[in-house]
Queue: 4 jobs
Job 1
Amino acid sequence: MRTARLTLDGNDYELPVFEGSEGEVAIDISQLRAQSGAITYDPGYGNTGACKSDITFVDGEKGILRYRGYDIADLAAGCQFSAICYLLIWGHLPSAQELARFRDAMRAEALIHEDMKKFFEGYTTAAHPMAILSAMVGSLSAYYPDVVTDDDLDRNIIRLLAKSKTIAAFSYKKSIGQPFVYPRNDLGYASDFLHMMFATPMEPYAVPPAMAEALNMLLILHADHEQNCSTSTVRMVGSSGANLFASTSAGISALWGPLHGGANQKVIEMLQRIAEDGADYEKYLALAKDRDSGFRLMGFGHRVYKNFDPRARLLKSAADKVLEGLGVQDPLLDIARNLERVALEDAYFVERKLYPNVDFYSGIIYRAMGIPLKMFTVMFALGRLPGWIAQWKEMNDDPNNRINRPRQIYMGQTARSVTPMDRR
Ligand code: CMC
């Protein structure tokens, strides 16, 4: 057996070493504390493998992203998002029959319980749709609580995928004070979502094929990304035995942060700010390099990708195509391109290996599609749902799963007593 040796206070410890299917080497420290009394310290978990997983492979140095072994570019070129959901959750691309059954099941679950519509009444029109999405997804567990068999779980998985699309579109309608538009059974996932967003009781909405295609691709590109902040949150919450809806709701909250999925909204806000300030992108590049400014180039940098983000590459060329296809001109696209160009030539960004990430160009495409800014992170969440579900399911199916419970190095005050003076 391959091992690594750790020497601590003159004692040697042999630690088992194993390798993943793509050659990643891991030192198994699961018995370290029991053997040596010491624990490891890794803030931000940059060097910690929290699980073994068969779902998604990312090689940050080479810019590789694969779902179940398939390259992301391959999947994004022509596959349907529903087939990718199936692939991630159940491990293989569905046959025509499996896909038809899956789609039918999703269509049958697209409506939310009528009582849930009352929840929307409690929000003001200013409510952020991520707040609504996370609360409503958690609330699904109040309506569909019992999972006894694998079939029950599959049904809840389908409910979560299908109803989140409806909840997301309803949260937008709520924010503009329009009546909800119900899902349609004759439309695919992306088209149905766009129909619920943009149709009104007075006028149906004919979904432009270019828009449905673009949204389908965006959803696929966001569908999973191994152990990122929100996915680790889903696993963390799920490790206690919390149900799928509750765990996913926590994942949605984690995604909302501006350093994670919330970055897609922040990128556009940043580009708008630069546009309003005379499109002086060099000024903002300088600000991003100045630690004291508190300004970061949103949509740039990634914990794992240190060369390029394959999703960003696909989105950059998609942005050109989609805007042209929809006949939209967006001055923010020029600013984004210029910002990327100067950043990629700048020593600060080169040395730190900072490249555009998935959020840099996705917002430009959402804007061209007419999706409002506050919905951008909701779009990310809809795309990421199958990934969260697949990871939650994999964890639950793993007989070695234990409740997640990291340790800490306590650095605070050592033991002391309350004095009589303190007892007031
Ligand atoms: N602009 C300016 N400097 C940056 C940026 C940026 N966007 N990102 C990282 N840096 C600098 C950072 O200041 C640090 O510099 P120094 O070594 O001098 O202290 C160095 O690069 C390393 O950064 P870090 O914050 O230690 O890196 P991290 O791996 O902890 O953070 C990140 C990764 C994505 C949170 C970060 O790059 C960032 O804040 N980016 C902007 C927000 C963003 O676009 N988030 C979306 C991520 S992709 C979608 C997703 O999966 O969520």
Job 2
Amino acid sequence: MAKAKKEKLSDKLFYKQKNCWDEINKKAEKEVEEIASSYKKFLDTGKTERECIDVICDLLEKNGFKNIDNISIDQEPVHKILKPGMKVYQNIRCKSVIAAVIGKKPAAEGFNILGAHIDSPRLDLKQKPLYEDSELALFDTHYYGGIKKYQWTTIPLSMHGVFINEAGKKTTVKIGEDPGDPVFTVTDLLPHLAKDQMDKKAAMVVEGEDLDILAGSRPYADKDEKDRVKLYVLDLLNRKYGITEKDFTSAEIEFVPAFKASDVGFDRSLIGAYGQDDRCCAWPAIQALLSLARIDAKNAEVKSIPAKTAVCYLSDKEETGSAGNTGARSLNMQNFLGLLHGGTEADLRLSLSRSSMLSADVNAAFDPTYQGVFDKKNAPYIGRGIVLEKYTGSGGKYGASDANAEYCAKIQAIMNRNKVQWQCGELGRVDKGGGGTIALYAANLGIDVLDCGVPVLSMHSPFEVISKVDLYMTYRGYIAFLKDA
Ligand code: MN
Ligand code: MN
């Protein structure tokens, strides 16, 4: 007969984190695969902020969310029409979205907000990008967000974006994603001739101005013409999209890695893909919102209406500091919540100060190859669940909104009540660098806000890696927050 195991004091007093794979059952494993597979599809169809918004607005419409701009055109103010369980959203310039499920409690009691971003580091075309040199056509770029420039050479790139003509007509471009499409690339020097290059500091190995994209090499047939390779490219673009060189000056054209999201590892426990910062939080955030007040298969009955109004805000421009009229420093979120609230500006401010938010963003997972930059005790680990990050910032917590202890404990309690496995995490060793999120802009409004998301390996690289089980715990954590905060 087995002896009853005596509980050790250390088991009672020490804080230990467990690997989520050891803790989940067969049913949960199935759910892990389900969210992973919908997420990979999202990554492949949403490679830019505009494409993400297209996918998400489509999804919101299919799930019964109404565009608030269409409602407000009708006579009555929006807040008078809203009832618990109703679902509304706003598409902000095709690059950001805010969606809400109206709760049972009045807006005056505050909102529960999930805020993630859907822009990712990439190469943007300059305004006069196309040139010819040595019978090669090349695009001049200005990189967007924090990248290690050398990582963006010698990989297949795809072209995404919009041209807008003077009449306002929008032409959408996506080349390099469909089977059989051509792709593009930034060339790099062969090792044989790279003696001087290899002696340079990594930041200078490939310089920003040299991230030029190879776009063609075939001359236009008419030999009386100049720059015939450039001309051939423009002729093709003109035939297909009706554009001329001038149209690049107003366009937004982004180049991103052309490869698709894949499972990584023999055990398929990981996902490798471009743009996971921050789509690995944006996707579970929007899915968490959709899980509330979901319309069932019979297209009937609205279920699980949240107590407080649940909001999901997906912002643009986080990777360049959240400026701009689609970024989180704009008044977009306040404007939207003001419509739901319907009171005076002072009323809205009071309601914001009673609101809770998770700044849904990624953290750097501990990487055994680069142990030196992490504090092993305080780094988040792949496979240990959603990361609760009390503060971000750098060197002396500079720029961190630093969530207060009361709020951290409240969120931990929500996770524990709902059996969501979580870990705490800090971005790297003290004074090794740092970074920020949109949390501080919410904190400025008096909102209680905590950074909370998925740990990532190779963050900001063309091929970032996350764990499926962390994605799953994050999804469940976001649902728990919206229902319970
Ligand atoms: Mn991020
Ligand atoms: Mn980032």
Job 3
Amino acid sequence: MCGIVGFVGKRNATPLLIEGLKRLEYRGYDSAGVAVLSVSGMAIAKTKGKVSALDAELANHPIEGTAGIAHTRWATHGAPEQRNAHPHRVGQIALVHNGIIENYAALKMEMIERGASFLSDTDTEVMSQWLHDRCAQGVSFAEAFGMMLPLLHGAYAIVALHEDEPDTLYVARKGSPMVVGTNDAQECWVGSDMLALAGYATQGYYLADGEYAILQPSTMRFFAADHTPIQVTMQSMNVGAEIHDKQGFAHFMLKEIHEQPDVIRKTLSHYYDHETQSVHFEGLTLDPTTISSITMVACGTSFYAAQVASYWFEQITHIPVRIDIASEYRYRHPIVPKDSAALFISQSGETADTLAAMRYAKEHGAHTIALVNVPTSTMAREADSVIRTLAGAEIGVASTKAFVAQLTTLAALVLYFGGARSTLSSEETAHLMHHLSGVAEQTQQVLDEKMHYDRLALALMYARDMLFIGRGTSYPLANEGALKMKELSYIHAEGYAAGELKHGPIALVDDGVPIIVIAPDDALFDKSASNLEETAARKGNIVLISSKERVANFHGNVTHSVAVPACHPFVAPILYAVPLQLLSYYVALHKGADIDQPRNLAKSVTVE
Ligand code: M6R
């Protein structure tokens, strides 16, 4: 979603802001802009498209200033055009915004009645117009800024500038994240994401919901929503700028796929003590023996991690599990069972729907657990318990190592619950942990054979539609495989439970529709093989993904097969995620798609 960077100090802000925007490109966007202030006034540049287009524009028409704001816009209100790009300037005021102002239409009408003429179709411009209007009535900018915030319904992270105050940034946050940073050189930084500040700010503070700040190089003043000045505690920021380096890989996605063996090892060494053979979750303040059900809520890939975990939890811990897509959960007034735990899974920890769902569950008495990859995220700050996934920063918009980290962490959590509730003996726990530990090496073996996926992708890249099918925990994996394929290659792909095929989707099958059959060597293999034959009988173009042994001995009708190292069925969803990632990566690569920033997508979906 939209990215925001702000700077005030003594250096020229423009190149710093552009560098910040480049670091936020991974969030997904369709236009970019920058405004800088100097003693001689305000200058703005905005372009449709990539930050590189803005950079080129600035090379032709340079602008300079020691304070500035910059923005990458992911269009919500108004098409991705230059006039809708931020910053939105009205008179002496410029403003950038992430989020949605839900009552913008009413505010806009009010401003039009007061004589304002709007230059864009955005919800954001109502704020610049409103501030301009109040200042024209003699209200100071600081006062107008504070007065405006309670009028805004919806979500926002805002940074604003006024031409008369060339050393000041006005910052506010409700719903959308915003971090304020500083360093020994008396520079102030603002970012919608700490990556924008990495290597620049040494200390940072995440504004809490409703808080706002007035930042000058010499003083940073923070306020609660009721305008009371507040003291905040800055935390040390130890994220280095090197995480923006692809380290020789063609794409962040490929780099992140290759990091997965290490992510699995790191996760298990964090949550499992080999000496005592025990699983431990320090961030979990819940006693697993006291709950009677678990609800898991998430979006996108994180939802498919929840779906896999629901199978594991019910089979291994015998706790009833309900799973839900966050955007549905939050509005369908779900009943929150007594003595329940509610687990919210999110890479970013900022997804608007998941956050709202978490707040709902908390209000209704559930013990909320945030399983997040960003430990400073809003979900991590608000949940009753926090479980970290240790994937490290994920830059590719398509989630890969975060998914594998979620699954590995959830698998360890299941073993922890199973042990605590005595549904698993210590021997069984050690046995399953042994298999879990083996996945890192098996994943490496899949990566070592990535050329197979490269070749297979050449055979699949012209498909218009694809089906992914699986049974048991391979069903959520089929959903995830289809999601990866569509978001990266723009091929229409659907995931189905293999047994569901003949209840409708089999009508789609012909020789132009590849059917990816995910069939690990488990108790359901023969059932999946029957479904495979049913599609083969209808000229389906079948790709079987299974163990080396099953593939070698399979004599059914498959067009292609992919052999994966043998693994225990419990860990199969983790291992089998990797072939699906590689397949979609190479199909996208051969199609020339924008792999790290697929069209229309955002990394962190902070609007609903
Ligand atoms: O940050 P989150 O895990 O909450 O994000 C959820 C989804 O937006 C995310 O998984 C999305 O589906 C990815 N693009 C999938 O690759």
Job 4
Amino acid sequence: MPLKPIYFDYNATSPVLPGVYAAMEPYFKERFGNPSSGHAWGLPAKQAMNQGRRQVAGLIGCLPEELVFTSCASESINTVLKSAFWSNPAVHLVMTAIEHPASLECAAWLESQGARISRIGVNRQGVVDPDEVLNACGDEPSFISVMLANNETGAIQPVEEIAVRARERGIPVHTDASQAAGKIAVDIERLGVDYLTIAGHKLYAPKGIGALFVRKGRKLLPLLHGGGQENAMRSGTENVAFIAGLGEACRMASRDLPAEEKRQRQLGTVFLEGLNRLGADYLLHSADTLRLPQTMFIGFKGLRAADILSGLVGYDVAASGGAACHGAETTLSYVLEAMNAPHEYAGGTLRFSWGRLTGLEDVEEVVRRLGLVLESLKPAA
Ligand code: PLP
């Protein structure tokens, strides 16, 4: 019998839930109107957008008018960071060294345009120290960008503390909540940030939709100029169907979050118990800090991530690697490097991430298949 494929890579992307798809479908069909049109075709599209905006706002506790729909998290992040620089080319951008490439590459480009950037390191748990972030800001005009949860380790960053202290000094703060929204409670007022990025496809909406929270009164210069949609902060005819999908995904996340967070965390416990039963020699990165409920970044001692991954692919399990091989050389992910992860474990690091459609039997089956892979990679006695 063919093996059931098991998707254990939810941090890369998540499936579109059937309810989300159903919410989108009419806007590909009879409700195809342009939300800016004043006639009978425009109105349902406009209403769908308004509803989507309210639903996303409901997930993070902001006002609907504080949201700008974008095409993805990368666009939200690029808009925020470039806006900060274009508003004041003397601004000092302070971020962590473990941000997603959407932030790091954008910052590198801004640096090439003359921006001053500081990248703050993290401790062994993969967590940034708020003191270091705030101290780096100095007395000059600054802008802070710190992700809420890291996509590789799942480690949650002290954004709340950073934002409280930044606010006292009038420093705006952006957080990339792409991996956090929908998985843990994300509340704008508690976090106290000025800008926040959401990625649709990490929370069961389709790829190609994102959102950006911009606190009332905060400035945002657009990347896209044109028809003045989204309060002139993001021109271009809105992706109504995907906005409806993102809204529904956020509504479902708000409704189910406490129960799903608990269930998915329990699956993690089962996964680790399974690894222990296998007798695997592993290191769970960021084990001693707050993490997302459904992410584990695990290093297997003395093994190469690529070998484990290809073994898992052979058993129809999808995960992702934290280290890549180039011939005999192993290149660790920049997150593992920044954490100074022990080399004997780091090279064999994989990211396992699960989600709403993962059942207990899937976790047990991943453990079983992983056991077969690890056995096959044991050096001959
Ligand atoms: N930020 C984080 C933390 C992510 O994990 C990702 C995607 O993996 C992104 C930003 C970029 O998302 P997208 O490729 O949808 O723009």
